[in-house]
Give the backbone structure.
Amino acid sequence: MLKTAFAGAAGLAGAAALATSAPGVARAVPRGGYEEVWVPSEMGPIKCQVQWAKRGGSASLYLLDGMRARPDANAWSFETNAFEQFALDDVTLVMPVGGESSWYSDWYNASNFNQQGVTYKWETFLTRHLPAALAARGVDRTRTGIAGLSMGGTAALNLAAHHRDQFKFAASFSGYLWLNAPGMRSAIRIAMLDAGLYNVDAMYGPPWDESWARNDPFTQAESLRGLPMYVSAGSGIPGYANRVENMVDVVNTANGMGLEALSLATTRAFQARLDSLGIGATYNFPNVGTHSWPYWSEELWRARPHILSALRAG
């Protein structure tokens, strides 16, 4: 396992320098293999777990974490077999680490409830600093797919809507795709307090602020026209991955049922919105499945052929 800093003391300029140090010369993507790399950002260095394209191709897929994203590893790397799923494919997997309760967006301020030491600037990182750093290793910043679960699924569609020059595919697994639905803003406020004591007002401001509309896939639907998308949500009914052996399992399963039911409702509303606009997407609504990792791993596998086709990385 390699650990690499794309740029160190040079700060934010480091990534840009790497991307432009050899004008007119494209560096080849490493062939296969895993690295943990640190990329400079306005939030400080961000760790990314990277599996390089098997045959040195220039396409990439960003995999975004959920609300309780950890500071040490992206959960796609240990809760699923994502690395194995794409091990023989010509696409570089990129798993940014961190971003708890961030919705992978640019915030107005640092959260005051938990004395957050830095203001989240995840959209800037994912659309400027990270692609610039990867470009220095031969990854084409215009052949990128983005996918995520729950909070990350919402963010994947938002980022793709606002950065069509970068993202050529987007997938949401159990995302919340109508943030401005009745009651959703209050639900998000409570969820962010529960996941790290984050103040939602520091993120998007008061309910009437335009950021709420800008970061809502339902509202931004027209901007997704022509983009290959894979969108899924489970029924909320427990299935093969739900084992209830003690009270902790009961609570976790009940929470997973409720969260998935909410995802399903907003995802179906998003589907109706796209249908009304004549915008196509690939949908999957399994008969069983709660808000948990085994189901998202399975959905990534189902989305894989669509990802490879869109990125021309088969």
